[in-house]
Amino acid sequence: MTAAVALTPVRAVGRLALLSLRTVGAVTLFALRSLQAVALGPWFPGQTLRQLAVIGFFSLPVIGLTAVFTGAALALNIYTGGGRFNAEQIMPQIVALGIARELGPVLAALMLAGRVSATIAAEIGAMRATEQIDAMRTLSTDPFGYLVAPRLMAAVIALPILTVVADIIGIAGGWAVAVGFLDFNPTVYIRSTVDFVQAGDVGTGLLKAMVFGFIVALMGCYHGYRATGGARGVGRATTDAVVSAAILIFASDYLLTTLFTQR
Description:
The chain has helices at 2-40, 45-55, 60-83, 91-129, 132-138, 143-181, 186-196, 199-225, 230-260.
């Protein structure tokens, strides 16, 4: 009896490890099957264009608002920090670098995770609950080709574009605060930003955005596709999609930043 009680935490850790490995394996197989559908088709251009509008165009307002306030707050914080070293004039460069390499792609991806991952999981989960996915197979239509591949392609294309928009609006937010409240010269601020930011800084952010877009769509499709238990299961799938997408975005951001900063 005593030995059994002592082994309980070990068993719990073992079960958790097995569950984690099983989840990683299932996500990996789902991702490979999805990539196969993207590469080999059949393709559905109309469905992909519709997803581009849903994922990209309709996400512009929320990403724009997030970017402008983040850029403004970042400018104020950098101005305060720079003032402690009498280096307030570096604010335009640091704001531009931070937004282009980090905040632009990450914030755009997080907004997309909250808005798009949940929507994808709810749509596909509802189709699973009402057996529409089984009906597709009966009609010889591949659900991966019709449901998953268009969403993956649309997210990978849309998020870099949204990141460019977030970069521009975020830098504009910093510029507005600097010129309006901190007495920066508007022309000098813009010239400092343009002269400092390099193509590699923007390219790094866009590569991150492509990876994040894949993660956002994959998590939405994965959790929706595996949803069980009716309406309650669909609700659980939407929550899991958002949480897992956010965690993977932060983890992959760290790995990509480490990779891009290696010298």
